[in-house]
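Working notes for the structural subgroup meeting. M.R. asked for a predicted model of this chain before we commit to crystallization trials. I am recording the input and output together here so anyone reviewing the notebook later can reproduce the run.

Input as submitted:
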Amino acid sequence: EVQLVESGGGSVQAGGSLTLSCAASGPTSCALDISWYRQVPGNEREFVSRVDSAGTITYADSVKGRFTISRDSGSRTVSLRMNSLKPDDTGKYYCRAVQLYDGTCIPIPGYYYWGQGTQVTVSS
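Returned structure, recorded in C-alpha cell form:
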C-alpha cells in the first residue's frame, strides 16, 4: 500500500511563503496522480492543486499565480510552493494519491490514499 507523508507546514505572516512536500512510499514505481487539498474545521476539504500521472497540472482559481506544484525527477515527492500567502490560505493541507491496481500503473477511479496532513497558519 502506498503511504503519503506531508511536511513543511508552519505559521507565517500574510505575504510569506511556505513549501509543502508530499513524499510517497510503497510498492510502486509509477508516477502517481497526486492532489493537494486543504481543510478548515467545519468545512469540507477544498481542492488546491493537482499533478496527474502524465504531468498535467491544475490549480484552484483561489491559488492560481501564487502556488506552484511540482514533482521531483524520481516521481516520489510532490511539492507545493506557496507564495503571497493570505489568511484565507490557513488550513490543514493534505495530499491525496489515486490508488493503482496491484502491480500496474492503472488508476482505480474513485479510490485514493490520503496523508495525515500538515497545518498551515497565515496571520494577518
